[in-house]
Structure formats: structure tokens, C-alpha cells
Fold each of these.
Amino acid sequence: MPGLMTMMALAPSPPMSVRPCFCNKMRGTTMLLVKNRSSSQAHLLGRRSWRAPAATTVATAAATAFHVDEQEREEMMMRRLAEDGWVDEHMLPLLTPVEEAWQPADLLPSFVVSADEQRSQVAELQARAAGVPDDLLVCLVGSMVTEEGLPGYMSMANRVAGGGDATGCDDHGWARWLRGWTAEENRHGDLLNRYLYLCGRVDMRRVETTVHHLLGRGMRAMLRPSSAYHSLIYGSFQERATFVSHARTARQAGLHGDACLAKLCGVIAADERRHEAAYTRAAARAFEDDQDGMVRALAAVMRAKITMPGELMDDGRDERLFDHFSAVAQRSGVYTAADYADMVEHFVRRWKVAELGAGLSGEGRRAQDYVCGLPRKIRRMEELAQDRAAQMGAQSVCFSWVFDRPVRIH
Ligand SMILES: [Fe+2]
Ligand SMILES: [Fe+2]
């Protein structure tokens, strides 16, 4: 899942709207929920005064009750998908059995051979890595740092209502998926980390400091961190973005003569492809269940400029490290605004968003229009950004990751 969602920030962000037609049932629903919901939600709702509520209080309570209602529906769907075996049938087969899975040790110099052979293998890896340009190394480090933020992503996924692993060894499908997905992802950071260490081209202390900062700083939560709909959409986008960026890195590494790096990134990309298929499939299932809720969730996630998992990376030197890394990725073609527009288009097609019809509310229709028109807006914004960059001329930034060598950002 961890991936490069740089260009999602290009998506325009109009103010969030509250669904307007809810006030009539607000009071009854809210009181019922106070009795039935968890203590934190009851506490939240219990703070409301029922004495002559002001208009803003009514609107806020309506929004809160609406979200609690949505949350309950999403949670029930998640539980149902686990209980009726849907997750077992449609998601778990997309994980590779451990006995068949690659491990980082399969793809890097071996230490079970003689000392001479070990030195020879490391020397060969370093000779090939010598041809990798700094901009590709920066992209690789940024991807590796993002992959190493995995503890935060597992923690976030575990907060999804109805989909979490409450005990750490729950037996339901979502919990088994989450642990299996985490185990597969864990190899990505390990593999890239070891390659970067062995290749000798990067300042590992600065890279490790960046990972340390990222884990300490965490990631900004999604719009509704416990929302299953938001999580499934977010997961689909992230996995696809990660597939694109690792696959492009593999291709460019091959062109620069580093077959080892090309292979590493290629196997990671293949994992991301399977993960994308799983989340996309689950989101499609949710569309079947609640097309109005899902299209509104999709628009909300897009409008909120999906929070990038590595956005808070920090090497202790460059306050705009993530922006600069993103700019290098854009310039080098590893991940671009056009890729983001393509992704939105892909998911609109995959989830048949344009064809949703009779069951949509007014807000659902507005969300549908917004999402279907988004790729065109993103492409237009990309053109404007490229025009601005062209007017500014060449600009470079020094990256601590590559011993403070300057790397072109545009
Ligand atoms: Fe993944
Ligand atoms: Fe990954």
C-alpha cells in the first residue's frame, strides 16, 4: 500500500458540504445512538444540549449523527463480508502463500557462500548501481522511506470499523487479510533498505534518520479514519500508485544497466498489483452494496486531497523534503500528475461511476459529476504547472540522502 500519491495534492478542494436533508430525523436518531453506540461516540453526542439548539448546533448535530449513521452502515457491511466468507473467497487468495513468496534474501548477495564469493557479489551489485543517476536514487529512497512507514499504515488500517484486528490474532477474514498484507509489505522496505545499504551510493544515516522521523511523526489521518469506504478507496489508489512508481523505477533501473535493482522493484511492483486488485475488488463490492455512500465517499476522498503516506518524512535538514522528492519523481517520470489523472479515470471506469443512476441522492449525483470531471481538471492543472515550471527554468535541490549532491526538481 505505501506509495507515492504526490499529485493527489493537485486535486481542487472545494469546501466539504453537509448532506442537507437530514434534520427531520436527527433528534430521534441521535438519541437512539446515544443509547446504543460505543462510549466515545455516546460521549460525543451526549455533550449536545437539547434546549433550544441554535441553527449551527443543529447543523453540527445533523452532520455528526449523519456520520455516525454512515459509520454504522459501513461497519455492518464490513462485518457481513467477513462473516459470509466474501473476504476469504475474494481477498485472501490474492496474498501469496509464505512457502511460495519471495524473500529479500533471494534477491540480494548471499552470505551462505564463501567470503570471496560474497565480496564478488557485493562488488557486482555496486558496479551496476554506479550507473543509476541521482534522481532515480532519490525516487528510490523516497519509496523506501515510505515503505518503511508500514507500522503507521497497519495501525491506520486497524482503525477501520468492522475491519480491524482487535486482539492481534483475530480469526475473521479482515484481520487475516491485514496481517497477511502487512507481512508482504514488510518485505518491501527490507528489500529496498538492504539494496541501498549495499550499493554504497546513499548516506544511510540520513536515510535512516528520515525513516525514524516519519515513524515518529506518523501520517495525517484520512478524512474519516474509521470509515471502511474511505479506507477501501484509499487503499485502491495507494496500491495502484505504488505499482506505477515501482514499475517505472524498475524500467529506468534496467535502462541504466542495473538489472538487480530492476528485478527488486519489479517483484515489489507485482505485489502492489495484487494488493491493488484486492482493495479495488472490495471497493467494487461496496459499490454494489451502497452506491450512493460509495460515490460520496469517493468524492470526499478526492476533495480531501488524499493524504500521502510519506508526506511527513523529514531528514532533519530540508523542511520541504517531501515536496522536493515529489518534484523529482514528477520530473523523472517515476510518478506524475498525468498518472494520477489516469488513475482517477481508471477507477471511475472500474467502479462504473458514470453509470450509477437511479439509486443516487442529490449529493450522490453531485459527487458523481465531480469525480467524473476530475481527470480533465487534473490534466489542465498539470499543463499550467508545467508552463510555470518552464518559465522558472532549471532548479536543483541538494538532497542529504545522496550526500548533499544537487538534483534537478524542474
Ligand atoms: Fe502494497
Ligand atoms: Fe509496498
Note: The chain is about 65% helix and 0% strand.
Amino acid sequence: MGYAVWRSMSFEQQIELSLIGPFGIGFAALWGALWGSFFNVVICRVPAGESLVKPPSHCRVCGEAVRWYDNIPILSYLLLRGRCRHCGAGYSIRYMLVELLVAALAVVMHQVFVVHGAGEIGLRAGQLVITSLFSGLLVAISLIDYDTRLIPNVITYPAIPICALLSVFMQLPHLWDGPVGAVGGYALIWLIAEGYYRLRKREGMGLGDAKLMAMIGGLLGWQGRSRGRRSRGRRSRGRRSRGRRSRGRSQRAARPGPDPLRALHLSRRARGLGAARRAANLAAVFLPAALTARTEER
Ligand SMILES: [Zn+2]
């Protein structure tokens, strides 16, 4: 694209174009990798009841502090070949895989919300921030659950109300869908757990899973779908849509409107992304549950 075209755009359009392009993808990947590094600390320390900030990162074998240049997500692991610089103790490759996974999830959320979402760019960027942190937290909970068979209350108790509050940014059909989803998610797992217990006379699921589901339902609403994508065509009718939304009946194909910004980036992949989004929703619900047969509360 020529510099003249860039110059002719408003500041908001320049921001939007930057965020939906390669710069935005790079930012999402870096952002995700940094948070992946933080969630590694969560996975290690929360089950042990340790502080997240004190002491700073250190080698679990020799106790030597990890310098900032040895603490760069993914890269440091590769450069040091997964070993401590001081004592040479080997670290699990899981540290790097968590950073990669959280980074990859942030890139997926960037595609779903920033590139293919509906609404103002500020809202879509906010949705990227919320959903990338949320998916990273699900990864952390899954691994803590896998390691310890526990989903710590110290995570779910604050996360449930925060998720229900943040649901107002997720374009759910109604404002109350988040809180209803939180209560409904808890009730659903409670019913399943209670039914299983009565039938089999042993515990199948714990209330840790119910709180996890309350967290998920709180953010995604009880339907687990956002208004932003489902009824985009219907809502935009009779409303100023800045040409961004597809017109008329062809909404499923997501044909770009006359806005040159969207024309550049909205593509035939939009249909595939709808399926990817549903798969991601399912994974968000079942991945943590599938990793464990039995979860207690703590
Ligand atoms: Zn060491």
C-alpha cells in the first residue's frame, strides 16, 4: 500500500490497519509468550502456596537467580538448551511448550477478535487482551489440575466475578448472560457430579470443576456464543455500520464491505474461522475437564 493512502487515513484507521496486519500478529505472539512465562510461574508456585512475585525467578536446583537475558520466553530455553546457565541442571521442556501454546492461543484470539470480530477496534483489542489472558489461565489451570488433581480456589474464586464482569465486553446477547452463565455453569457441573455420585456411589467430578465452569460461563455467557458474530447482518440493518459489516443475506460468507481496510483483510477464510471458533469454545470447556478424571476442591 502506498504511503499516500496511509497518509489519507484517519489516525483510528491507521491504528486498526496496524493491528490487523503482521504487526498485530507479532504483538499478539509476543504478548502471549510473555504471559505464558508468567503462567509457568503460576503453574509452579500456586499449588505449592508460594508467592508469585517473591522470590524472583531462580534455578530450582542451585538457587541462582535467573537474569533477565536468560528469562526471555521460548528463546532463552532454546539458547540454553533447556539448562541452567550456572549448574547445568535440565529444565522440563514443558516451560517452553506452555509459552508456545499461550502465544499460539493469543494469535488465534487475534484472528478471531481483532481481524474477524465486529465492533470498534478498541473493543476488539480489548477482547484480544481478555481472551488471550483467559485462554492462558485455562492452560495454567489444566496443567495444575493434571499435576495435582486440584483446581485451586485461590484462582477460581477471584476469577469467577472478574470473568462475569468482563463479559460485558464480549458482545453477548444480553448484559446478564455472563452472570447467568456463571451460575448455570456451576449448577450444570454440580448436577452431573451429584448424579454420578448417587449412581456410582463414588466421586467422579469435584466442585473444582464446577467453579471452573462458572468461570468459563461467566465470560462466555450461558450460550457460549457472542452476538458479535452470530447476528451481525441482522443487527447492522438500519444502523450505521461504517461499511464494515457484510450486507444483506451473504453474511455467512462475510464478504467485505466497501471499507478498504476490511477489504484488505476479510477473506474467504472467515467461514472456516467460524468453525475454528466453535472448536475453540469446545476445547475451552472440555480440555481442562478431559485432563482429569477426578478433581477435588481446595
Ligand atoms: Zn542452577
Note: Residues 59, 61-62, 64, 84, 86-87, 89 surround zinc ion (CB under 6 Å).
Amino acid sequence: MDAQKPKRKSLAQIRLERQKRAKHNQRLNLLFICLAAVVLIMIPFLISSTVKTFRYSDKLSVVTRQLGEEKNQSLPQDEESVSQSLVASMEELQNERDTLTAQNSQAQEELASMEAQITSIQEQLAAAAPSEPENPPAAEPVQEPTAPSNTGNGKTIYLTFDDGPSYLTGQILDILDQYGIKATFFVTYTEKPEIVPCYQEIVNRGHSIGIHTASHDYDYIYSNFENFKADFMKIYTYVGDLTGVYCDLYRFPGGSMNLSGRACFMADEIRTFLSQMYCVYFDWNVTNGDGEDVTADLAYQNVMNEIEGRNTPVILMHDGEKKESTVESLPRILDTLIAQGYSFERLTTASPQIQQGVKWDT
Ligand SMILES: [Zn+2]
């Protein structure tokens, strides 16, 4: 029975066990304290690390976000900058183009204006200056002729009278008869009963009769070929019916310079037409200036001045209305020229063809 019963511990054993437990508990407490101390020491570091981690995370996220934004924004900004630069260049080129266009337009307007002025001057020269000038030559002091020279020896003068017949034509015919001189009359259209016989009288006295114009209206005859032809045929048939002479001599109103001036667009048609009518046209290289009002002295002096040096003088005068100075100056002109040794002939188709710009006698 004693063997089955647990043995009772002795007091000493109990004390020893208590001491061991106490030591063990002390060790545990010490270990716990150490662990607690370690934990307490580590907590700030942990907190600091955590905080720093969060801060770095925040900074990183901010930086990342900024980088992303910069990345996203940098390309559009560059593209926008390039685009703005191109737009500025384009606008600059457009402005330059507009400036050049404006300058070109202005230059073309100036050129057109200059061409118009040139055309106007050419028309004035063709229509007025050579033959029946609107502006008479500048008046020069009338000088008495010096002793007759022999400058006319061997030279033939062709006297021509335009714009008649008129009430003055008979006087001119009489003067020419007195000198035994034959001339040429480029006639216009008139139905005045007292004038009409002059056409036949010109022919009867041995002068040449040629066509000038029926209307003497530059704007009409030089506006188109049909007008020119109609005007020509009116006086051509009229003279032919009156005298039996169908003229083969012609003088352009204002001179043939109109063929290179206002009538240049139909010059070929006119030349062809005159050729078909067997007409030769004649201009002049001397005038007494009676296309405008001149005194008899000035008319005389103009002829003396202009005939100087001419080898084949074709003198333009007028036997139209109000040309009394022409009648008055004619005897004096003839006296001087005869004294200088000139002879006189009427124009025929065989005469030297003095034509402006084509066969201009010097
Ligand atoms: Zn005329």
C-alpha cells in the first residue's frame, strides 16, 4: 500500500521547487522587460520610418504626377510653339505677298496710264501736228527774204491744196494761172451751188484732183473701216460724176500717220482698199501752217523755213473757208521759190510718193 501512495514531498524539496519557479519567473520577467525595452526603443524608429515612407511616397507621387504632367504637356507645348512659329511665318509671307500684289497692281496701273498717254500723244501727232496742226508753229519774227538763192535749182515742188473747194478756190486757180503753175487739189464734199463748179474748173485748168474726204470727221472715218470706205466712196463717186475723173490720188485727213495711230487697227484694210481703187496716197513735207490761223507773213515764212533742204518738196496748203492768208501769201511764195530756181509740177501716180514714215523725203 505504501508503494501505490505518492510519496509526500519533503519540505526541502518544496522549497527548492519554489526557488526554481521563482528564478524562472524572474528570467521570464527579465526577458519580457528586455523585449519591452527593445520594442519601446524601436517604436520611434518605426514611426519615423513609416512617416518618412509616407512622405517619400507622397513626394514620389507628386514628382511622378508632375513628370507625367510635364510629359503630357511638353509635347503639345512644343507642337503649339512650332505651330505658332509656322503661323507667324505664313502671316509674314502673306503680308509680303499682299504688299507685292499691291505694288504690282499699282505698277500695272501706272503702266496703263503711261500707255494711254503715249497713245494719246501718238494720236495727237498723227491727227494734228503733221498736217493741219491744232497748234500752229511758234511764231517767229518775219524776216524779209534775202537775195534769191539757187537752192531750188533742179528741184521740183508739188503744191497741194486740201479741204476745198470753197469760195477761195477760184482766186487760187487764177493766181496759179498767172504763174503758169500746175498744182494738186485734194477735195472734200460740198453741194453749195456757187462752189460745185470748182471741181470741174480744177480739172479744166490742168490741175490734178484727188480725194481727201467727204466729211473730214476724224472720229467718224477712223472709227471703223466701213465708215472710212463709205466716206471715201461718197466723195469719189461725187467727183467722178461731176468731172468724169475718177481719182487715183488720195490724201488722208490728218495724214497717213493715222495708219500707225488711231486707224492702225484697220491699216491693212485701208491700204488694200486704196490699192483696189488704184489710188496712191501722198503726204507732205512742207506746210505754210494754215491748218490754224496764220498771217500771210507767217504762212510765207513757214514755207521758206520748212522747204530748206528738201529734195522733193510737197507743200501742204488749204483752199478751204477762211484761208484768206493762204491766198494773200501765195504770190509772194511763188515769186521767191521761182527766183530760187524751183520748178512746179502737179502730182500723178508716177510722182515721188512722199509718205509719212514710209517714203519721207529729207
Ligand atoms: Zn484736211
Note: The two ends are 186 Å apart (CA to CA).
